[in-house]
Design goal:
Glutaredoxin, 4-stranded mixed β-sheet, globular, about 15% strand
């Protein structure tokens, strides 16, 4: 069992499914509202969730401003990305997860399973892409 700090967008169906997987695997979850977290006061902590991943992978591809073409993560520096996320936290890839001093952005099932463990039968599941986006793409849920 791990103690997991889970930063979510309240009401997000994928975040709900992700939390259910974590709880089902026996983990204790402390949930935080990603959108109301005072990131401006702790920029270094926000940055630490992204490690050395490319800046574009720091972003929630389903964020309205990205889908509308108003924000282009491919063209941003690290400092521009963090500033944009502080101004509009919906841009942050979610969830942000912290356990045992390790921080990560997003919910790649295989990566989370290798890190803290999940219940069997979850391999290959896409728990990051917004369900509305998958429906629009023609995927049946």
């Amino acid at each position: 069992m791990a103690l997991v700090y889970f930063y979510e967008k309240p009401g997000c169906l994928n975040n709900t499914r992700q939390k259910q997987l974590l709880v089902g695997a026996g983990h204790l979850i402390i949930v935080h509202d990603l959108l109301s977290e005072p990131w401006r006061n702790d920029v270094a902590r926000l940055r630490s969730f992204f490690h050395n991943r490319p800046v574009a992978e720091w972003f929630n591809p389903s964020a309205p401003r990205i889908k509308q073409g108003l924000v282009n993560p491919q063209m941003m520096s690290e400092s521009q990305a963090i500033a944009a996320m502080i101004d509009d936290p919906i841009l942050i890839r979610r969830p942000l997860i912290e356990s045992d001093g390790i921080r990560w952005a997003g919910f790649d099932v295989e990566q989370v399973d290798a890190w803290i463990g999940l219940s069997s039968g979850v391999a290959g599941r896409d728990l990051e892409t917004c369900t509305r986006d998958r429906r629009q793409a023609g995927e049946h849920l």
